[in-house]
Amino acid sequence: MRSVALIAWYELYRLFLTKRGLLSLLAFALVWFLILRYAIYGAAQFFSVDQVGGIIAGLFNSNIINNLMSWQVPEIAMFWVVMLYLLPIFCVMLAADQTASDRARGTLRILHLRASRDGIFFGRFIGQLLVLFFLIIIALATTLILVMMRDSTQLLPALRLSGIVLVNLMLVLLPYTALMAWVSSMARSARQATTYAVIIWIVCSILAGWLSRQFPELWVLDMVLPGSQVSSLLQLSGWNTLSLALIPIVQTVILLFLGRMIMQRSDW
């Protein structure tokens, strides 16, 4: 457990105290500023006056639109929508290099002198989750500042909604991070790991779709891929969103099992 904790905290160190990590953080900050200014702020204006823009209405069905308009703080509602689709993409790119480059450089052998294979595998996985957690906190803080600038009386409702959003976003990201832990245990570079993830995603998506059409009783296959519950999440609000929490948890357990199995058997 000590080695898992040390490796996990080292992932935070690499993000905040290394040149490469700070550049990644700067890139995220710039992209997030553009999204905050032109997506969240602009879209929230429509919801705050009970109007929905044509683009927003075209992206989602009426049930989702009505649910979003019921949120007390429109900025948090738009943050919820944007992050549900943006964060998984960022997660795949950020978490692709959990063990791949260390395997190519041979540094996994050095790490293995001080930590078990499980310690390295789960330490990197937890470390990536910590990095994502802090990025979400930073993004939420800037959104709350935007809320205060518009109407300071909505700060307390925004804080309550922020807790709900934070918990659900971490649940959504669990299987994506586990997927990248699995493919990274097979790859020798972050690019290769990303390629593996895309191939696995496409093959599983096609296979699951075909099987569910041929055998309707196998509807559970629609829940195989990470993020499969996102469209359903958008139709829920409050802590009712946790009713779907079992889906990403089961996905994560299965993906971590596959990744750990390969990590234990791989030859460094």
From TrEMBL:
Chloroplast is among the record's keywords: no
Signal peptide residue numbers: none
Presence of keyword Repressor: no
Chain segments annotated as transmembrane: 21-40, 77-100, 121-149, 161-183, 195-213, 233-258
Pfam families, sorted: ABC2_membrane_2
Lineage: superkingdom: Bacteria
An example molecular function term from Gene Ontology annotations: ABC-type transporter activity
A single cellular component GO annotation: plasma membrane
Name of the molecule in the record: ABC transporter
Species this protein is from: Leucothrix arctica
